[in-house]
């Protein structure tokens, strides 16, 4: 009896190890995904989680701009259609000039995108279908928390616990709702080009913009979302700013080995690298190119959002001439059919299996824009990076790579033949290689694979009705109390009273002496 059940367990274990999917206790959960932001790079983080849940047997409904082309059995799409998807759509000319105010401008861009996505999603047919479900139908709602909390209004209608996903490192306004501390001395703001090591000027700027952006979010984005949510669901709906404090769990696409350790409460889970799939065989010609490159390969890819063929002719020629001087083979993700003056060692491709190329042992350097997906893949494969950050979180990702010693920066304005050669020569140094391998080692060796961690927590939140024990009371504190500023204030007051009375005493005794003088006359 005992041994036969043991055998069953062993067999079951073997089957599970084989499929790589953990069995879940109890009946399948009904899970809703709400992803109103139309950026495909974000969805690369969400999709593996939603798909993983479906493959583990749960019933998954997904509202997004990116329907799964080959959905798993329990994966049902509710596509948002008719809004511009932000794929291959960023024109590099926007980034020719960057100033100190750029990150505030970016905030307004995000604010605007957030309003549009909120308005669009609330009016969509996809959401109307979801809202036909009765309250409490879904066991858990998984949503992106990025530039708007609009979807918290939907979660409120559906009465289900919420798990938030962030495809980039946490935004300034994400900390408070999870009860996490904002410590600008060593936690760089996503909008800044800094790592955990900052000098005084950097810390001051970080402190200022951390708090400024947090307040701007509260004063602009929250009321904008409230207006649309209340227009849709009525004026009884609480502010999304309040509803956001009801977030049970926060999955964030970061990992300490890359972005630096941070003090995070247990309701914030780091899942960096979850999108990195098992390796797939490379196309034969690419495999041959990589295998036969005796001096190694340099990969240039600026992600899915930025069109390389909008590079100015001068910069493009600079890269081409630099490549011609190298003995390495160069692979460039280039969206045009042709590349003027293309040298023999340069190979252009409209699309490439970035992750599989990067992990090939002959790849020596990755020229990247510092997007989080590419950055994570470089960390995973252990490849030194020449980073050219352009907007959004790319600056903070790049700063983290540089702080870890595995990247050097090539500024966008400075792209030219000599600067490209200089940056590549630097990144080819063994120091960078060693640092990249060290990051790769801790990035890949975790107690549990990121996907398994995510599945475990989603089931935990569903089974405990929103994991109330996981919520710090800090969520409901004002920040004045949270940082003990009330205590500092009392201590300062007491000190002031003591010092003040001493001063008064001294003044009185000295004053009586001096006032005694005229009496003697
Ligand atoms: C939402 O979109 C509709 C039509 O698409 C438009 O008329 C309306 O002004 C928008 N509302 C806001 C608050 O942007
Ligand atoms: C807060 O979340 C719980 C589940 O975690 C849910 O039942 C409740 O309705 C939510 N509260 C609000 C005000 O939406
Ligand atoms: C890219 O191709 C388009 C048309 O296909 C052409 O107009 C444009 O000049 C090309 N750009 C470069 C840099 O080759």
Overview of this protein structure:
It is a single-pass membrane protein. This is UDP-glucuronosyltransferase. Its EC number is 2.4.1.17. With 521 residues, the chain is of the alpha/beta class. The protein has two domains: 24-276 and 447-473, Glycogen Phosphorylase B (Rossmann fold, 3-Layer(aba) Sandwich), CATH 3.40.50; 284-444, Rossmann fold, CATH 3.40.50. It has 18 helices and 13 strands. The chain has helices spanning 2-19, 40-55, 102-122, 125-131, 150-158, 200-233, 240-243, 256-259, 284-292, 313-324, 354-358, 372-381, 394-403, 417-427, 430-444, 450-463, 479-482, 485-520; strands at 30-34, 59-64, 75-79, 140-144, 162-166, 247-252, 268-270, 297-301, 329-333, 346-349, 363-368, 385-387, 407-409. The protein has a seven-stranded parallel β-sheet with strand order 3-2-1-4-5-6-7, with helices on both faces. The chain has a six-stranded parallel β-sheet with strand order 10-9-8-11-12-13, sandwiched between helices. The longest helix is centred in the C-terminal third of the chain and has 36 residues, at 485-520. The termini are far apart. Residues 1-22 have low confidence and may be disordered. It binds 2-acetamido-2-deoxy-beta-D-glucopyranose (3 copies). One 2-acetamido-2-deoxy-beta-D-glucopyranose (NAG) binds next to loops.
Overview features:
Rossmann fold; six-stranded parallel sheet; seven-stranded parallel sheet; 2 domains; 12% strand; disordered N terminus; 521 residues; binds 2-acetamido-2-deoxy-beta-D-glucopyranose; alpha/beta; 18 helices
């Amino acid at each position: 009896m005992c041994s036969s059940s043991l055998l069953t367990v062993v067999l079951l274990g073997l089957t599970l190890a084989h499929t790589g999917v953990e069995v879940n206790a109890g009946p399948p959960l009904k899970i809703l995904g709400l992803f109103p932001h139309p950026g495909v790079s974000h969805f690369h983080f969400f999709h593996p989680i939603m798909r993983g849940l479906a493959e583990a047997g749960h019933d998954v409904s997904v509202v997004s701009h990116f329907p799964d082309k080959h959905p798993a059995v329990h994966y049902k799409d509710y596509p948002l259609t008719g809004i511009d998807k932000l794929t291959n759509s960023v024109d590099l000319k926007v980034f020719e000039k960057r100033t100190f105010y750029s990150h505030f401008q970016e905030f307004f861009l995000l604010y605007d995108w957030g309003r549009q996505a909120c308005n669009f999603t609330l009016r969509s047919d996809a959401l109307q279908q979801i809202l036909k479900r009765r309250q409490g139908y879904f066991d858990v709602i998984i949503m992106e928390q990025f530039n708007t909390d609009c979807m918290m209004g939907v979660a409120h209608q559906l009465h289900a616990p919420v798990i938030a996903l962030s495809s980039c490192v946490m935004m300034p306004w994400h900390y408070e709702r999870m009860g996490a501390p904002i410590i600008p001395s060593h936690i760089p703001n996503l909008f800044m080009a800094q790592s955990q090591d900052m000098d005084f000027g950097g810390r001051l700027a970080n402190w200022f913009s951390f708090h400024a952006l947090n307040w701007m979010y509260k004063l602009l984005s929250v009321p904008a979302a409230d207006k649309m949510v209340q227009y849709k669901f009525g004026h009884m709906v609480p502010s999304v700013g309040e509803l956001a404090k009801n977030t049970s769990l926060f999955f964030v696409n970061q990992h300490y080995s890359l972005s630096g350790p941070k003090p995070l409460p247990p309701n914030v889970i780091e899942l960096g690298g979850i999108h990195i799939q098992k390796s797939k065989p490379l196309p034969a010609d690419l495999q041959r190119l990589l295998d036969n490159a005796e001096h190694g390969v340099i990969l240039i890819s600026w992600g899915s959002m930025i069109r390389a063929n909008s590079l100015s002719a001068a910069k493009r020629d600079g890269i081409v001439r630099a490549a011609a001087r190298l003995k390495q083979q160069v692979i460039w993700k280039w969206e045009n059919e042709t590349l003027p003056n293309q040298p023999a060692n340069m190979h252009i491709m409209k699309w490439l299996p970035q992750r599989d190329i990067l992990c090939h042992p002959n790849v020596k350097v990755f020229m990247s824009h510092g997007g989080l997906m590419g950055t994570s893949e470089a960390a995973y494969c252990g490849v030194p990076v020449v980073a050219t950050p352009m907007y959004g979180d790319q600056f903070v990702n790049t700063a983290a790579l540089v702080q870890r010693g595995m990247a050097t920066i090539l500024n966008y304005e400075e792209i030219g033949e000599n600067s490209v050669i200089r940056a590549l020569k630097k990144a080819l140094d063994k120091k960078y290689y060693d640092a990249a391998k060290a990051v790769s080692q801790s990035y890949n060796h975790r107690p549990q694979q990121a996907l398994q961690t995510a599945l475990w927590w989603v089931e935990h939140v569903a089974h405990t009705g929103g994991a109330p024990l996981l919520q710090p009371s800090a969520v409901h504190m004002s920040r004045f109390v949270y940082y003990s500023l009330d205590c500092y204030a009392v201590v300062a007051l007491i000190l002031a009273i003591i010092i003040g009375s001493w001063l008064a005493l001294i003044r009185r005794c000295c004053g009586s002496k001096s006032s005694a003088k005229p009496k003697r006359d």
